[in-house]
Structure formats: C-alpha cells, structure tokens
Specification:
This protein has 225 residues and is mainly alpha-helical. The protein is built from five helices and no strands. It is rod-shaped. Keywords: Membrane, Transmembrane, Transmembrane helix.
C-alpha cells in the first residue's frame, strides 16, 4: 500500500490561497500602475494646456494693456481739448469716468467689472481659446473614460480570480474526498487481512493444542496398561 501524507491536501489548499493572493497583488499592482500612468499623462497634458493658456493670456493682457494705454492717451487728450472750450463741457467730461478704469480691473489674470473681455477679443484669440477649451474638455472626458475602463477591467480580473480560486477549492475538496475514500478502502482491506491471519493463527494454535492433548491421553492410556 502506498503511504499517504494527510498534510498534502492542506498544503495544496494553502498553495491555492497563496496563488490567489499573488494574483490579486499582481492585479492590484497593474491597476495602480495604470492609474499612475494615466495620472501622469493627464498632469503632463494639463501642464501643457496651462502653459498654452498662460502664454495666450499674457498675449491678451499685453494686447489690452497697449490698447488701454492708447485709449487712455486719446481720452486724456480729448479731455484737455474739451477743458479749453467751455466750463460746462469741462464739468461734464470731468464727471465721466475712464471706461478702462471702470470696466476692467487687471490683477494678474483676474478681470472684473462690466467689461467682457471674451467678446472684445480678436477672432484669432477667440479661436485659440475655443480650441484649448475643447482640448481640455476632450482630455477630461478621455481621462474619465479611461478611469471607468480600468475600474471595469479590475473588477473583471478580480471576478475571474475569485472564480478560478473557487474552482481550485472545489477540485481540491474532490481530490481530498477521493483520497480519503481510497484510504478507507485500503484500511478496510488491511483490517480484513489481519482478521484472516488472526483466525488462521488461532486455528493452528487450537489444532496444536488438540494434538498435544490427544498425545497426552494416549501416553496415559499406554501407561495404565
């Protein structure tokens, strides 16, 4: 009879569990690497978009500052000319605020007031702004879609790993049950063989005792005669 190790099945189960853990760790590692790569790509794209926006915004600010200086110079000249005409005109013009000061406040990249910079931009700047806006929206949509796809892929991988582990556990349980049944049959056969040997031993022992008793009786009988 082949010797069976009762710890083999437990070792196989532990190996299956360790394999599942390794697969789950590898899947999590791939998922984190994909997230990091997509985040890095998104950061790079966002950095490029930020640089483009800052460059275009600087151009726009320089354009409007030059326009403001020109307009302010013309406005000051007009006020000086009007002051020399009549006092009424001077009072009226002095009460009129500078449209650049009342409509636009430049503080870095912040504009406030009733002035609408986008509507006053040249067509080339509007086109560039719209292109950058569309590129940013498309990048955000792509990033969101990639994130959803990665989450779905990770869920599918985890489900496949769980299903495979379940199949391995069922197969291990079936092998264990089959091995235990084989061991029981072999033990039963060994028990029957041992009983048979014991019966034969008892039979020959009783036979030997009977022969000795018969010889003893015969010798006693001959001694009496």
């Amino acid at each position: 009879m082949e010797s069976e190790n009762p710890d083999d099945d437990h070792q196989r189960v532990e190996a299956a569990v360790e394999q599942k853990k390794r697969k789950r760790a590898e899947s999590d590692k791939r998922y984190r690497e994909k997230i990091k790569e997509n985040t890095r790509n998104t950061k790079e794209e966002a950095g490029e978009l930020k640089k483009k926006l800052e460059t275009n915004l600087k151009k726009i600010l320089l354009h409007w500052r030059g326009f403001g200086r020109t307009f302010d110079g013309k406005h000051s000249t007009c006020r000086k000319e009007c002051r020399g005409s009549t006092s009424y005109s001077t009072e009226v013009l002095e009460g009129v605020p500078n449209p650049m000061e009342s409509s636009m406040s430049l503080n870095g990249s912040v504009m406030s007031g009733s002035f609408k910079p986008y509507e006053s931009l040249p067509d080339a700047y509007k086109l560039a702004f719209n292109e950058l806006k569309e590129l940013y929206i498309a990048s955000e949509a792509q990033h969101t879609q990639e994130k959803v796809t990665l989450l779905e892929l990770h869920a599918l991988e985890m489900a496949a790993a769980a299903a495979q582990h379940k199949q391995e556990m069922v197969a291990a349980a079936a092998r264990h049950a089959q091995e235990m049944a084989t061991v029981k049959r072999e033990c039963s056969l060994e028990y029957l063989v041992m009983l048979l040997y014991l019966f034969i031993f008892i039979f020959f022992l009783l036979k030997n005792i009977a022969l000795r008793l018969m010889n003893l009786l015969c010798s006693l009988t001959h001694a009496q005669y």
